[in-house]
Amino acid sequence: MDLSSAVSATASTLRRRPADLLPFYLLGTAVPVVARMGLFVALAGTYLHYELTGRLADARRALADLDLTPPDTQDPEAVQAWGESVAPALEPLASPTALLLLTVGTVATLLLAILTYAAVSAGQMSAVAGRVRGDRGLPAGIAGVRGRWLTFLGLYVSEFLLWVGVSLLAGLAIGGAFLVNPFVGAVVALLALLVGLVVLLLVRAVFAFAPAAVVVDDAGVVGAVEGAGGFIRSNPVDALAYLVVAVGVLVAISSAASALAFLGGGAVVALASAVVAAPALDLLKTVLYGDHRGAVAPIDPVDARLRDQFVGGVRRGWREMIGFVRRTPGLHVITVLVGVGFGAVGWLAVDPFVGAFTTSIESRLVGHLPPTAALNFFGNNWSVAMATSLGGVALAVPALSSIAFNGIALGATAALEENLAALLAFVVPHGILEIPALFISGALGIHLGIVSWKTLRGRLSREAFADSLENAFWVLMGIGVLIAVAAFIEGFVSPYYWRPFL
């Protein structure tokens, strides 16, 4: 199969039943939400440690006796003196136990990120392979998470070690040559740079196709590397064409992100790269490798126009969202209670710092550009909704933590606000859509956590779990409609209408 045919097959596969593939790529956006649970637990443990030992009460009493009014930032000596006066009050918080908890939490977060990324990648590529074979993608992806996560972890660790090994060998060769003679060192450095670059490019090329070999051949780490190497030797033109396309896509994404950064489009570009570019590239290399192995089912082109598909998808997403809200009132009540409860926690937690630190909605709106802000709000908030919802697959805890985190952040911001009336006036017009959208995403995350737990216990089949993931995709499309309207209001209406009155 030539590159043109592979691209056509990729586009047709991606457009035909996108909800049978894209949920795993939306799940990729939830990796940070799942991983930060390690740090959240450490922070909760640190807070509990402070409370039980009386350190937090000591810090509060010490801060209450101080004038926490911040000095003029234009006067360095005043700032330094203010910092020196506040520092002793915070000394009770400098606990070895707290430092140990935070260190362990940081390490746990890093490990969770690596393991979760490997599991999600295994699911993504397994779903892609299922679609390429003509099967349903989501059940194949669910099976791939359980059966292949360790293989994908092995691939990533192996490539990392190869990069480190090649770099160390080059460094040792250059260092030894310079000890002999500076001229020889310069020559060896040039050769090491050229040879090392070629070797690293070959390593990247092999490991680019190795995931496809894992899911097409059902191979382990060694077999996948051998299969990828064999594909490159047998089809150098196709392999090179894919690498050129992949590099071109990455360059285009980077350029678009840089060009749109000042327009607030960075979040939208990042979202598009995660849920459009990533699955397209995975499909393309799997189609190429699968054709090499004779494992690609015939793929018919999609007759419907892209515009018609988009409009139909938006309508279905809205219907599915409304239906989900009606079916799960209890989950929404739980989400609202968590959000409001932790909002109160955020309000109370920053009480000792009121006056020392302030936030100002009016200051944040200085230089506000409506189109830029609306685009940025849409990208950020929809990404948060996706991560909150799909993060719930990890037994609902990350979804609840995401709602709690946002509640704390909003409560703390409100407590420190200089002009609370202005903040409320700003939030209300778009908040009546944006806040319910985030609550719906939290309820969806809890629902997926329940479904995930039942599947692990054997009370639900993989097909039923796949049905829930597919439904969640459409609910998120409906949430996207709410967030898009809220973003428009937040960009063009919320910053301005209240100014004549407040």
TrEMBL record:
Residues 1-279 form the DUF7847 domain. The chain crosses the membrane at residues 24-48, 98-120, 153-177, 183-203, 239-257, 263-284, 329-350, 384-408, 420-453, 473-498. Pfam families: DUF7847, SpoIIM. The keyword tRNA processing does not apply. Keywords: Membrane, Transmembrane, Transmembrane helix. The keyword Transmembrane helix applies. This is DUF7847 domain-containing protein. It comes from Halorubrum saccharovorum DSM 1137.
